[in-house]
Amino acid sequence: MAFCCICRAHVSEWLPHPNRDKRSPLMAMLGTVGSNLTRYGCPACHCNDRLRHLWLYMDKTGLATRLAGSDVLHLAPEPGLERIIADLEPATYVRGDLNPTQPGHQRLDVESLPFADETFDLAICNHVLEHVNSPMRALHELFRCLRPGGLLIAQTPFAPAMHNTLELHERPDPQTAHLLFGQEDHVRLFGGDITRYFHAAGFEGELLQHTTLLPDFSPTEYGCNEHEPFFVFWKPATHAAERANRTAGEAATVC
Ligand SMILES: [Zn+2]
Q1: 0.85 exceeded by pTM
Q2: How many angstroms separate the alpha carbon of residue 223 from the centre of ligand 1?
Q3: What range defines the domain where residue 217 resides?
Q4: What average pLDDT values come out for the chain (255 residues) when binned by 10 residues?
């Protein structure tokens, strides 16, 4: 018997991905890490494996208990996760999307966020970086809006077999994007260099593996992809102090 950690239903089996047979052959050849296509949907609440895995990671690492009273930014919110987070009563819970369709969601462009520096304790931005014009601009914005010590969760598909991220000069047509990047509206396929993007924006952290964080959670029973790591990064707590020192140093130079 399997168990959905989102709706807490015991289910007899997981549903396959509806487009399982249309997967780009290149994604299979490269071993791209994303959804598990056979244990994909929950027959009770229809959440997908990525969401179940994300919540298991958040719960297991204690992140869930830190949400109460925190200031949280959630971009492209996953409906099942949004409900859970709201129930945990963050102090503020800002939800937004480039093309919002749900009540309570703001129109937000992750590459140009309308928030002051150091506004949030936690930013959640899953499955966005493969769509944006500039992942570096997006990560710099997320970094800017987080407080020192703040966390970013940003699950993203990637192909660890590739040394570098694959991108074209021009946004490709949908068929080419599906073949090269795995989905019609993706504009890149991250490679094994993906953590360098986060580090270049100032974040610290590494991809955390299922076998490390969730060794007792059977991927079959909990319906997740054991090859999908947890993308959690943090803004160094010393950032504010370093910046203050730098500013003081610059002021002294000017004087
Ligand atoms: Zn469910």
Answers
A1: yes
A2: 10
A3: 2-254
A4: 94 92 91 90 95 94 92 95 94 96 95 98 97 97 97 96 96 95 96 97 96 96 96 86 52 37
